[in-house]
Design goal:
Rossmann fold; 4-stranded parallel beta sheet; two-stranded antiparallel sheet; binds ligand DLZ
């Protein structure tokens, strides 16, 4: 994928709608919590920068990325306007990586397509720890920022089109 020169924290601030009054749920995987904690911080900081109140952000943890699907499914049923799923899967020596990435990705995509609320994909899948560190506030920016912007834009779109 063409991410070589793309910083995950770069976006046009003028393209982001006012997020005051939006409620956002964030489901976070406990695996690789040094990474997922930094992604969560980035997402919260960016949501609040655009007007989401701290009290309108609901955070729940799940054991691993594979559980993000059920966590997001439960969260979507609450009064939040969108759900951000945050996880980090790092490649090991077995095909386990592929199964977790595939299951989680398809599960989240299915939820996004079938639920009436946006489900934002905040899963980092990397070959090693350094690549993950680069994407949670390192040289590639923070994917949490990208997810926060995507959530705000999708909530605004959903409000515009469901009027
Ligand atoms: C088992 C497992 C492994 C090997 N690696 C990761 C990982 O890199 N990132 C992650 O979020 N979770 C991992 N897990 C845990 C699975 O996601 C899941 O929690 C367990 O298989 C239990 O269903």
């Amino acid at each position: 994928m063409a991410t070589k020169n793309h910083n995950l924290s770069d976006y046009d601030i003028n393209s982001v709608p006012d997020a005051k009054g939006m409620r956002v749920g964030i489901v976070v995987s406990e695996w690789n919590d040094n990474i997922t904690g930094a992604l969560l911080d980035g997402a919260k900081k960016t949501l609040m920068k655009h007007g989401v109140a701290d009290s309108d952000i609901m955070v729940e943890t799940v054991p691993g990325s594979f559980e993000l699907v059920m966590g997001a499914q439960l969260m979507v049923k609450t009064d939040v306007d969108a759900v951000i799923a945050i996880g980090c899967v790092i490649r090991g020596d077995t095909p386990h990586f592929d199964y977790i990435c595939e299951g989680t990705t398809y599960g989240l995509a299915r939820l996004n397509a079938t639920q009436s609320k946006p489900v934002i994909y905040g899963l980092i899948t990397t070959n090693n720890m350094q690549q993950a560190l680069d994407r949670c506030g390192g040289k590639m920016g923070n994917k949490g920022d990208e997810c926060a912007v995507a959530a705000i834009k999708m909530i605004a779109l959903s409000r515009r089109l469901s009027k």
